[in-house]
Fold Endoribonuclease YbeY.
Amino acid sequence: MTTPQLSLSVQYALKLADLPNRHQFRRWVKAALQGDAEVTLRVVDAEEGQSLNREYRDKDYATNVLTFVFDDMPEGVDLPLMGDIVLCDPVVRREAQEQGKTLEAHYAHLVVHGILHMQGYDHETDAEAEEMEALETRIVTKLGYDNPYQIKKDQ
């Protein structure tokens, strides 16, 4: 089996010293990737996160991660998976603190989560959620982080 090829663009819409770097983002994306892909990963503020969530999901609040898959290719065209992942930094920070996780570990989990969505995984039903969460846990722990679904209660 060949290693999936990745074209990754990372965009920082805000400047903060403790954001993950491009190398970290690439490592996390590659860990979850099952085939070739062209991905743009964008880190945004709450205003942009809320605007995108409102426009594309009709939900008027900022959410942690949004995944946009470009899947309008004609049948039979064999191109790499293409899409965008948007991470809303203030939400990611708040959740990491609430869940007793490091910021890095939570970013890693959400990148893996977004990449799995790009590849067709979902969590709309209990069975889908169970499958996706098990895969996320396997990938995230293999990267050296704790189980992302095991929230620390002592925080």
